[in-house]
Amino acid sequence: MMNDTEASLNARPEQVVYANILEKGMLFGLILVVVTYILYVLGVIKPFVSMDTIVASWTLNVHDYLHKLHIEPGWAWLFMLGYGDFLNFVGIALLAGVTVVCFLAVIPVLLKQGDRLYALLAFLEVAILSLAASGLLGTGGH
Amino acid sequence: MKSIHKAIGIGVSAICMGLLLDCAVFAESAQQAVQSSSGYGWWIWPVLLFVVTFVMGIAAVLGGVGGGVLFVPIISGFFPFHLDFVRGAGLLVALAGALAAGPGLLKMNLASLRLAMPVALIASAFSIIGAMVGLALPTKIVQIALGGTIIGICILMLTAKKSEFPEVDKPDWISAALQMNGVYQEATTGQIVHWQIHRTWQGLLLFIAVGLMAGMFGLGAGWANVPILNLLMGAPLKISVATSKFLLSITDTSAAWIYLNNGCVIPLIVVPSLIGIMLGSFVGVRLLRVAKPTVVRWIVIGMLAFAGLRALHKGIFG
C-alpha cells in the first residue's frame, strides 16, 4: 500500500490522460510534417506555388504575399491538399490542434473526480483554442 | 578539469557564434543573388535555415533559453523573410519544442497541469489578442517593439535571480481554492518537496502581458514564465521551468492558429527550422555535460542583444 505522499508523487489521472494524448498526437504530427515536407521538396507532389516564386516573394508582407501568389488564407488549404506545399499544413495543423483534443479528453476525467471548477477551466480553454483555430477572428493579415 | 570544461564551453560558444554569423552574412548575399536571378537555387534556404537553427538549438540548451526567443530576433535580423513569416515560424518552432517536452514533464509530475490551467487560460486568450494586434500594426512598429523587448529580455536574463525552493508560508485564497499545489521528489537528493503558491492574482495579471508579447512577437515566453512562476508565485524552480515549458504548448497554440489562419506560415521556412532546432536541442543536451553553461549563457545574451539592436535599427532606419 502506498502512503498519501507516495501516491501524490505520481501525476494525477487527468495529467496522465493529457500526457498520453499529447505524446501520440505530437509524434504523429511531427512524422506527418517530416514526410509531407520530403514529398514537397523532392517534387514528388507538385506545389501550387513554385519554390523560386516563394523565394522571390517572402520579403513581402503577408497581405501582399497572399495577393501576389493568389493564396486564400484561413482554412482554404483544406481544398488544396493535392498540392505538395499545402499538404504540409496537415501535419502543422495537427501539431497546433492536439492541445484542444487533450483538454477535451480531460473534461470527463475531471468531472468523474467531482472537480467541476477545473472541468470548467478545461472547457473554457477548448473554447478559446477553438475560436483561435476557427478563423473567425479575421484572416489575411495587415 | 575545470579549465578543460571552460575551454570546451568557450570553444562550443565560439563555433556557435561563428557559424551563426557566417550563415547570416551568407543569407544576405544569397538573397541578393536570388534577387538578381543568379547564383543559388531555392534549396539553399532550407539548408541554411537547418544549419542556423541546429546551431541555435545547441546554443539555446546551453544558454538556458527557449529556441523561440532566439529564433525570431536572429532570423528576422539576418534573413530576408518578412517579419510576418518569421513570427509564424517562431511560434511553430517554440510550439513543437514545447509539445515534444510536454508529455515527459507531465508524466514525471514536474510540469503541473493544475498550476498551468488557470495561467494558460489567461495567457492563451491574450496571445490571440497579441497576435491580432501584431498583425494589424505596421511592421516598423512591431520591429521596434521587438527590438526593445529583446533588449529587455537580455536585462532580465542578466539580473533575474532564481530560487530553488521559494518559501511560501501560506497559499492565498485563489491558489487554495484552485488547489494549485503539489508534491515532487528532487532526483538529485531524494528529498520530497511539498509546494504551494501565493500572489496568484498578481501572477495572473502578469500573464496577460506574457500572452500579449508571445502573440505579438511570435516568441516563446519561457524567459517570462519562469521568473513569474518561481520568484513571484513561489513555485519551486524545477516545477516552474517544467510548467513553463508545458505552458508554451498552450499559449503558442492559440497564437499559432491566428498566424496560420492569416497565411503567415510558409512550410519552406517552418519545417527545416523546426527540425533543425529540435535536433540541435538533442545535441545541446549531450554537450551540456561537458560544456560550461555560464560562458555559453553570456554568449547567448550577447547574441540576443546584438539581434535586438539590429531589430531596433531595422525598425527605425528600415
TrEMBL record, chain B:
Highest taxon of source: Bacteria
Membrane-spanning ranges: 43-62, 67-83, 89-106, 113-135, 141-160, 204-224, 265-288, 295-313
Mode of membrane association: Multi-pass membrane protein
Keyword Transmembrane: yes
Chief location category: membrane
Family: Belongs to the 4-toluene sulfonate uptake permease (TSUP) (TC 2.A.102) family.
Protein name (record): Probable membrane transporter protein
Species whose genome carries this gene: Desulfomonile tiedjei
Lineage, top ranks: Bacteria, Pseudomonadati, Thermodesulfobacteriota, Desulfomonilia, Desulfomonilales
